[in-house]
Every structure is written in structure tokens, then in C-alpha cells.
Amino acid sequence: MARGGHLLVTTTGLVFEPHSMNLNSERSRLRIPIADILAARPRVVILHVTVVISTARGGDLEFVTWNRKKVLAAIQQVRAAHDLPLLMP
Question: Which of 87, 53, 83 is nearest to 68 (CA)?
Fold first, then answer.
């Protein structure tokens, strides 16, 4: 189940900040270091536009976002700034 919130790409990683009305919003907050992102790809499920992030911990995380192209480009930009290999499209 997707939770509402904001997906941000920072200079060090990806941050998901849930809306305050979500249940257990503190536990839903995520920070993923940029080096731990192994893959990032767009996905469309019915009417939801999502980004799927594969992590070094072995899991896939799915985020609903209408700005998926910007999110994917920002992840690549931060990886390049840290001299990490770019992710395959």
C-alpha cells in the first residue's frame, strides 16, 4: 500500500517524508543513502505513476510521484557528484 508524502533527493540520498495524517508516520519516514540505491526505474500501475528503488538491503521500495523523471534525473546527478556509477535506465 502506498502512503502519501513527499519524495526528496538530497545531496546524500533519497528521503521520504510521510504526510502527518498517515498512521505511524514516524515509522514511515525513510532515508536511503545514495550509494545504497542499486536501481531506480519508473513504473505505471493502473493510474499510479511510481518510481521503484532497489536498495543494497535487497528490497524494492515503490513511491507514488508525478515527478518521476525529475526524481530519476536527480538521483543520477547526485550519484555522479559522488563519483558513483550511473544507474542503467
Answer: 53
